[in-house]
Amino acid sequence: MSVATSLARGERIVIAACLLALTLLSWLYLVILAAAMDAMRGSGGRAAFMWLMPMGRWGAAEFALCFAMWLVMMIAMMVPSAAPMLFAFHSLSRSRVGAQRPGRAFVAFLFGYFIVWSAFSLVATAAQWWLHEAAIVTDMMTSTSATLNAVLLLGAGIYQFAPMKHVCLSRCRTPMGFLLTEWRDGARGALIMGLRHGVFCVGCCWGLMALLFVGGVMNLLWIGVLTAAVLMEKVLPFGAMPAKAAGVGMLAGGLWILWGA
C-alpha cells in the first residue's frame, strides 16, 4: 500500500469519526431538550430547564435559543444523508492533479453546506415565532391547528411529485455527477460547491422538514422518521420510490385531517 493511499484512508477515517461525533452530539442535544420538555410538562423542573428553549413571550434570547435548536436539529437529520457527498468530495479533491490542502477544501465545502441550512433554520425559527405568537404552536412546540397540519401535509405531499423536487433529489443522489459538473478549485471553490449542494439539499428536503410542525418539533420519534425518510430518498438505489410513496401517504394524511375537521 502506497503512502498516498494510506494517508487518504486515514483521512477518510478521521472524516467518518468527525461526522459520527457531530451527529451523535447533535442527537444528544435533542434528547436532552426532549427530556427537559417532559420535565416542564410535569409539576417540577420548569425553572431548571427553561434556559434550554423559548418559553412564554419571545424576545431576542428566545429567538436565539430556537434558532440553535433548529440548527442542531438540521445537523442531526442531514449529516447522515450528506455523508456520501462529503466522502465523494474528499476523494475527488485528493485525486485531482495539483490539488492542495484537501482538508481545508473539505472544511470549506462543509461550511458552505451548513451556511445554507443555517439560513433555513433562521426561516424555520421565524415561522415558529409567528405561529407561537398566533397561538397556533404551543410552548411545547406542538401544533394546535388541524388546518395547519392538513395544509403542511398536502403541500409536502404535492411537492414530492413536483419537477423541482425531482431535480434537487437527482443532484443529491449522484454525488460524483454533481461534483464533476460543479467543480471549482481551491477553498473558495469548495465553499461555493458546498453552498450549491446545500441549496439542492434544502430544495429536496424542505417539505419534509416543514412536517416537524405536524408531529411536534421536539418529538424524537417523528424526527427519527423524517431523518429515515430523507436518508432513504438520497442514499438507497431505489430512493425515488420511497419519495413517491411518502408523498401518497402525506396526501392521504392531509385529506384525512381535513375530513375529520
Helix content: over 70%
Given helix and strand content, the structural type is: mainly alpha
Write the element-wise H/E pattern from the N-terminal end onward: HHHHHHHHHHH
Number of helices: 11
Number of E strands: 0
Using the alpha-carbon principal axes, give the shape. Answer: globular
Structurally, how many domains make up the residues? 1
Oligomeric category: single chain
* Rg: 20 Å
The major beta sheet can be summarized as: none
Contiguous runs where pLDDT drops below 50 for at least 5 residues: none
Provide mean pLDDT, rounded: 87
Question: Can you walk through the features of this model?
Answer:
The model has no long low-confidence stretch (mean pLDDT 87). The chain is mainly alpha-helical and 261 residues long. It is 80% helix and 0% strand. The chain is globular.
Task: Compose a concise summary of this entry.
The chain has 261 residues and is mostly helical. The protein has helices spanning 3-41, 46-49, 60-95, 102-133, 146-159, 163-173, 175-182, 186-210, 212-215, 220-235, 240-260.
Keywords for this structure?
single chain, 261 residues, mainly alpha, 11 helices, 80% helix, 0% strand
Question: What is the fold's blueprint, element by element?
Answer:
Elements: H1 3-41, H2 46-49, H3 60-95, H4 102-133, H5 146-159, H6 163-173, H7 175-182, H8 186-210, H9 212-215, H10 220-235, H11 240-260
